[in-house]
TrEMBL record:
Tree of life domain: Bacteria
Pfam families from the UniProt entry: Aminotran_3
Biological source species: Pseudonocardia adelaidensis
InterPro entries linked to this entry: Aminotrans_3, PyrdxlP-dep_Trfase, PyrdxlP-dep_Trfase_major, PyrdxlP-dep_Trfase_small
UniProt family annotation: Belongs to the class-III pyridoxal-phosphate-dependent aminotransferase family.
Key words of the record: Pyridoxal phosphate
Official protein name in the record: Glutamate-1-semialdehyde 2,1-aminomutase
SUPFAM superfamilies in UniProt: PLP-dependent transferases (SSF53383)
Listed cofactors: pyridoxal 5'-phosphate
Length: 431
């Protein structure tokens, strides 16, 4: 498989853009050498690259495009707003409509403020928590891979160059005793975590987190960038019946359009407003936070989810895909090494070596075989636009990939099938 036009475009990107992409997770280092396609367009669950290749896509837009590319309901809603203007000196009527529609859908929240990305929303939540409690430390879940581009999070990753020491402590997911120790020793302003990730929360865990945060006077923040809408249209908080003090939403909310949200209880959120007796918090003030077409996209997404049962469809597609992959990995005798994990609406895959340890070289082999079969994606996260034929084709490609994987395991060396250097983790100190 050769991608000459994509290769030339990648060179141009690296000359103009640090990292060659505007999101590290989209970098060409995340793909096998010389197999990092540059996308020209997409429709539904399919995308096309600059070399004319068509792919079935997973993890679309880093989990943002859940309805499929160019979804007609979303596109038509956006088009209706474009001719009206996109940004004004005062709030537009669609800001009222979008806020009320969001709060109707996420009834555990009492107020909402929109912005353009998840990092700004989570940092705003941290700022509110610090103002509300008068404390500085932040307690975050170490098992969740990403919260923000801001210093309070990136300072704890291997890519911490240029960031001073941050007052942040971490705790493992699923361990209430460990969290209680952190709360006892550090008295943090907030506890921030994703309500769920690759595994379901242990029985009673989220209830316990809620109780511990309340008892210790810490603000409970749920990062629902991924779980929001994918777990249910009410968020994971609605599914599990837990009300956080603050929560953040994004990704699926705009089906690819730039919109995210900070939501929460009125008494905390209003500290960033005009009806408070407390010292005011400079919360979120973004020129483009209320672009009309992005809010129109959000309303269309919410309506689609609630009226068409999109979350149920995502789970049904994921269940079908996971079952098929598990069947072929068992048949090909690689079930201990190629594993599909997570909630059906948010499937990821693990590539393990002969010792059962996560392996970037084996991941490279696997991704290379998928790309050669017309499948692109760093995960198996489904979109609602996938068809049964797409799922069947994916399972066929995975079966072929598992045949090669088995050969590499038998040889105890994936190198002959990697095609070059291994793919790399996003967070690393040096190139």
């Amino acid at each position: 498989m050769r991608l000459p036009r994509s290769a030339a475009l990648n060179e141009r990107l690296h000359a103009a853009v640090p990292g060659g992409a505007h999101t590290y997770a989209k970098g060409d280092d995340q793909y096998p050498e010389n197999l990092a396609p540059i996308i020209t367009h997409g429709h539904g669950a399919h995308v096309w690259d600059a070399d004319g290749n068509e792919y079935i896509e997973y993890g679309s837009g880093l989990r943002a495009v859940t309805l499929g590319h160019a979804h007609p309901r979303v596109v038509n809603a956006v088009r209706r707003e474009l001719d009206k203007g996109s940004n004004f000196v005062r709030p537009s009527i669609i800001e009222v409509e979008a806020a009320e529609r969001f709060l109707d859908t996420v009834p555990t929240a009492e107020m909402v403020k929109f912005t353009k990305n998840g990092s700004d929303a989570t940092t705003a939540a941290v700022r509110l928590a610090r103002a509300a409690t008068g404390r500085t430390p932040i307690a975050l879940c170490r098992d969740h891979p990403f919260f923000s581009t801001d210093d309070w999070f990136i300072g704890g990753t291997p890519m911490s160059a240029g960031i001073p020491q941050q007052d942040v402590v971490s705790f493992p997911y699923g361990d209430l005793a460990a969290l209680e120790t952190v709360l006892d020793q550090h008295e943090p302003a907030c506890v921030i975590l994703e309500p769920a990730t690759q595994t379901e929360p242990p029985q009673g865990y989220l209830q316990g987190v809620r109780e511990l945060a309340t008892r210790h006077g810490a603000v409970l923040v749920f990062d629902e960038m991924i779980t929001g809408f994918r777990w249910s249209e009410h968020g994971a908080q609605g599914l599990y019946g837990i009300t956080p003090d603050l929560s953040t939403f994004g990704k699926a909310m705009g089906n690819g359009f730039a919109v995210s949200a900070l939501a929460g209880t009125r008494d905390i959120m209003e500290r960033g407003g005009l009806h408070t007796h407390h010292e005011r918090v400079f919360l979120l003030s973004t020129t483009h936070g209320a672009e009309t077409h992005s809010l129109a996209a959000a309303i269309a997404v919410i309506d689609t989810y609630t009226e068409e049962g999109t979350t149920d469809r995502l789970h049904a597609l994921g269940d079908r895909l996971a079952a098929g992959i598990r069947d072929v990995t068992t048949t090909m005798n690689v079930a201990d090494h190629v594993q599909v994990r997570g909630r059906a609406s948010n499937l990821v895959f693990a590539t393990l070596d002969t010792d059962g340890k996560p392996s970037q070289p084996y991941r490279t082999l696997f991704l290379r075989q998928l790309l050669g079969g017309g499948i692109i994606g760093p995960s198996f996260v489904v979109s609602a636009a996938l068809t049964d034929d797409d799922i069947d084709r994916t399972i066929e490609v995975v079966a072929d990939a598992c045949g090669v994987y088995r050969k590499a395991l038998d040889a105890d060396d994936p190198t002959p099938w990697m095609g070059g250097r291994p793919v790399k983790p996003v967070f690393r100190r040096y190139v």
